[in-house]
Amino acid sequence: MKLPGATWMALLATLATVPGDEVQLRDQSAVIGRVIAEKPDQVFVDLGYTVIGVPRAQIVKVVKSAEKGAPTKGTKKPGESPAKTAPAAAPAQEAKGLFTVNTTPPPERTVRELMAQLGQAVVQVRTPSGLGSGFFINEDGHLITNFHVIEGETQISIEVYHQRGGQLERRAYKQARIVAMNKFADLALLKIEDAGAPKFARVPLGDADALAVGERVFAFGSPLGLERTVTEGILSTKTRQMQGALYLQTTTQINPGNSGGPLFNLRGEVVGVTNMKITFGEGLGFAIPVEQVKFFLGHRDAYAYDADNPSNAYRYLPPPSRVKQAETKGKK
Fold it and tell me: What was the pLDDT predicted at 6?
């Protein structure tokens, strides 16, 4: 009996108690039964109550029961209680204004696994004069990028890759509003305001202070226009002083087009915003620590973009009441 791919995948949850051969799959699950035939394109497994055909493309390894030195997965020794495994719980998160943080640290995973989860939240920021990267911090379309990516621009397009039926579909959003920007921290907050825009995938912000030198990190962006490029490296130092500010230094390859993109730890948290490299050296990339991003978001009113005066990047708030009172008294 041959089943379509979606049908036999739905049966996996019922197979853990069937003894026999083990067909290990790419999604880290397994089919347990008796392998009765192995074809170039499929492996047929007898489950006792039916026979299924497992596509070769989904198979990592076939382990026969005779080759196992330990009891078959899903079986138990005489007198032994069956093992109880709890499903991995999603990390608890807490909203902090426009962004979220993990309240319990999630486990570390491979870059490949994380990109399948985080890829939709990383975007391309396109302007008439160039291209940069960015990432969503909430479902409503707020995203972070570098100030120098959108400096002097009023026409900003955000290109997002949505997951549709297992495939990535690119969509450009033309109504991107500048909410706030800080030239000196090289940060900008944008918001997509296109009619009919969906809820967007987002990424949590982490803690750069908790990073250890030598810890593995990876960047995701569009270096030199090569969209959706992943580069991995280590944290070289987290206190590199340049032009009066502290940066994260990393061996992760960063090039023009990466600017504004996220630097992730292996827990899938943003720990920095990539913004520059030393052009005459190798493995010398830099990122703005995520603590500066949190400060920028927490004080975004002070950095609000004034559309009525585009040459002024800030909207200055009124002075405190005591200052006003002193000025009033001085005029009397």
Answer: 47
Structural element, H or E, at residue 331: helix 321-331
> For domain 5-67, which CATH number applies: 2.30.30.100, 3.30.470.20, 2.60.40.10, 3.40.50.261?
2.30.30.100
Cα(208)–Cα(220) distance, integer angstroms: 17
Closest alpha carbon to 266 in 306, 219, 322: 219
Give the Cα separation of 235 and 105 in Å (integer): 19
pTM above 0.85, yes or no: no
Using an 8 Å Cβ cutoff, are 306 and 316 in contact? Answer: no
According to DSSP, the residues that pair with 168 across neighbouring strands are 163
Q: Which CATH class, in words, describes the domain spanning 208-296?
A: mainly beta
Question: Cα(178)–Cα(190) distance, rounded to whole angstroms?
Answer: 5
256 to 119, 174, 240, 270, 286: CA distances (angstroms): 19, 22, 20, 19, 12
Handedness of CA 112, 118, 119, 122 (dihedral sign): negative
- CA 258/CA 66 separation, integer angstroms: 51
> Which parts of the chain sit beneath pLDDT 50?
1-18, 70-87
Number of CB atoms found within 10 A of residue 203's CB: 24
Residues known to be catalytic: 148, 186, 259
> What is the number of residues in the chain?
332
Nearest residue to 195 (alpha-carbon basis) of 174, 170, 171, 168: 174
Would you state the torsion angle of the CA atoms of residues 328, 329, 331, 332, taken in this order, to the nearest 10 degrees?
Answer: 130
CB 245 within 8 A of CB 119: no
Could you give the CA distance from residue 56 to residue 64 in angstroms, rounded to a whole number? Answer: 16
Ordered DSSP codes for 58-84 = GEEEEE-GGG-SSPPTT---TTPPPP-
The Cα–Cα gap between 120 and 243 comes to 34
Q: What pLDDT is attached to residue 279?
A: 66
